Amino acid sequence: MRAKGLELKRPDQLLTMRRAGLVVAEVLSTLRDLARPGATTAELDQAARDILAARGAGSSFLGYGADWGMAPYPAVTCISVNEEIVHGIPGTRVLDEGDIVSVDFGAIVDDDRGRGWHGDAARTFLVGQVEDDVAELSRVTEESMWAGIGAMRLGGRIGDISHAIESSVAAHRRPYGIVREYTGHGIGSQMHMSPDVPNHGRAGRGPKVVEGLCLAIEPMVTMKGEGTAVLDDDWTVVTTDGSWASHWENTVTFTKQGLWVLTLEDGGEAELTRRGLPFGPLAD
Fold first, then answer.
1. Concatenated DSSP letters for 108-132?
2. Is residue 282 part of a domain?
3. Which of 72, 70, 89 is CA-nearest to residue 81?
4. Does some domain include residue 283?
5. Average pLDDT over residues 46-63
């Protein structure tokens, strides 16, 4: 079902997306434990491939871009280290003590008609002991994601989410940079769908949030400037000033009962409850 160009999911389709979200949650939890000094980014990607195979799920990322004439993405994870913001390609890079590593991952699960549905999330991991300002960068970015999730409500606007993210980052004394070229997005039968969900903007603007809409809310924040560049691999996005970056993301919907974070093991219940926000999972 579509409304004004937006794909709205039926309850059974949301439940399939939840299954995809649980695969995403499992992978990111596993990679958090593996992101230690001495590990390579390729080893993390292989662990994600193994879980996909064990769960009978597909990758949202592998081969992405080929349909648009781009170089097909060669991995199932995007692993971005330090000054890399997003779309980092796993390989021989060894994680070092003090690194910050953002892992973006998407999974596809088929419904009983063979149609695939996506889940997409990102986490920032701290490798060993990191500097206090690096840990704070990750905390600020995660908090801004939750501010955006908390601003999502039926009848509200996409701009409410964008404004909440921007305001959350701006509330800190340090002048963090909010990456503007890359945004959150709608998600469902495709990984990237309308509407875009910018990480800055004015409240009350943009499409309405309606039942059945699923959004990937994903702020990317840097320790300094907002400028970005793409490396020669045509994928890896880095800061132009060399400042480090953090990326947090979850796939979220708003049911009649409240918010449901499809890519967290508990559906977001603990964090939503802590914030006084309504938790609204569908029953299996």
1. EEE-TTS-EEEEEEEEEEE-SS--H
2. no
3. 89
4. no
5. 98
Q: Distances from the Cα of 49 to the Cαs of 87, 128, 241, 250, in angstroms?
A: 17, 24, 33, 20
The secondary structure of 185-203 as a DSSP string is: EE-SSSSSEEEEE-SS--T
Burial class (CB in 10 A: 0-12, 13-18, 19+), 160: buried
| Cα–Cα distance, 281 to 14 (Å, whole number) | 10
* Full domain range(s) for residue 213: 2-274
226 in a domain, yes or no?
Answer: yes
Using the predicted structure, report yes or no on whether residue 190 has a pLDDT greater than 80. Answer: yes
Q: Residue 105 in contact with residue 28, Cβ under 8 Å?
A: yes
C-alpha of 138 from chain center: 13
How many structural domains does the chain have? 1
Bridge-partner residues for 125, per DSSP?
101
Rounded CA-CA distance 141/78 in Å is 18
Domain with 138 in it: what CATH number?
A: 3.90.230.10
What phi and psi values does residue 156 have, to the nearest 5 degrees? Answer: -75, 180
Residue found by looking up tokens 């990326």 in the block: 247
What pLDDT score does 3 carry? Answer: 60
| Position 284 in a domain | no
Q: What pTM did the predictor assign?
A: 0.97
Rounded to a whole number of angstroms, the CA Rg of the chain reads 18
pLDDT of residue 283: 87
Q: Pick the closest to residue 117 from 109, 105, 106 (CA basis).
A: 109
State how far Cα 159 lies from the chain centre: 18
